[in-house]
Amino acid sequence: MSDADNNATEEREAFDRDSTSNTLTIAIGLSLVCSILVAGAAIMLKPIQEMNEVRFRQRIILDVAGLLEPGADIEEGLDRIEARVVELETGTYVDSIDANNFDPLAAANEPATSVAIPEELDIGKIRRRAIYAPVYLVSDGDELSQIILPVRGTGLWSTLYGYLALEPDGETVSGLQFYDHAETPGLGDQIEDPAWRAQWVGKKIYGEDGEPRMEVVRGTVAAGNPYVQHQVDGLSGATLTGRGVMNLVRYWTGPHGYGPYLEQYRQAKGT
Ligand SMILES: Cc1cc2nc3c(=O)[nH]c(=O)nc-3n(C[C@H](O)[C@H](O)[C@H](O)COP(=O)(O)O)c2cc1C
Fold first, then answer.
1. How far is the CA of 156 from the centre of ligand 1 (A)?
2. Second label for 13, Cα 20 to 30 Å away, from 32, 128, 173, 219?
3. What would the mean pLDDT of 230-248 be, rounded to a whole number?
C-alpha cells in the first residue's frame, strides 16, 4: 500500500462518519436546532393565534345575535356589542374587571377564581365555574336588543361550548349557537343544524314558577300542549346530546348560573 493510501485510511479512521459518537452529535444538534425553530415559531405565532381566537369568538357572538348576515360590516356589528362582567352569585355587574380580556374558562380552572358546583345543581356536568362571567349586551340605537350569555355543558362525548341569546325581556330565546364540541358528525352535531337552532327562537326559558323550563323533548313537540313555548324537538339518534343542551341551558339560566343576573335585569326593567 502506498503512503498516500495509508494516509487516506488513517484519515478515514480518524473521522468515521458512521461512528456512534458522530451519529449522536448530529442527532442531538439537529434536535436542538429543530426545537429552537419550533419554540421560536410557537412564541411568534402565539399572539396571532390569540387574536384569531378572539376574532373567531366575536364572529360567533355576532352570528348568534343575527349580525353576521352576508355583506354585514363586522366592525359595525362589534360596535353594537358591549361586553360586561357579572358576579354570578349576586347577579351584579363588576366593572373592575375588563370584560374584553376576561377568560371565564381559564378562570374556571383556577381554584381562586372559581367555585365548585354543588352536585345536585351541576346538571350541565361541568363541575366548576368561574365566580365571574361575561355578558354581551347588543344595542340597536339607544335600545338594548339582546343579551348574550356564554354557556357550556357536557353532551354525550364532549363539552359543548356556545352562546345563548335572549330578547330584551331577559327570558325569550333569540338564538343558540355552539362553536366547539366533539359530538358525532351526523348525530350529536345536529346541534349545529340551523333548522334545529331556529326552533329555539321565541321559546321562553322560565316557567310560571320562575324555574328554567326549556326542554328538548323525545321526538317532536306535540302541537297545542301547554309546554310548547318551552319545548324543541329532540335530535333523532342523538337524544343524549340533545339532553346535554337542555341541561346546560337550564343550568346557565338557573340560580347557580345567570339566573340572579337575569332576575335583577328583569326586575329593573319591570318585565
Ligand atoms: C358510534 C356512535 C356514535 C354516537 N354518537 C352520538 C352522539 O354524538 N350523540 C348522541 O346523543 N348519541 C350518539 N350515539 C347514540 C347514543 O349511543 C344513544 O343511542 C342515543 O343518544 C340515543 O338516542 P335515540 O334514543 O334518539 O336513538 C352514538 C352511537 C354510536 C354507536
1. 8
2. 32
3. 98
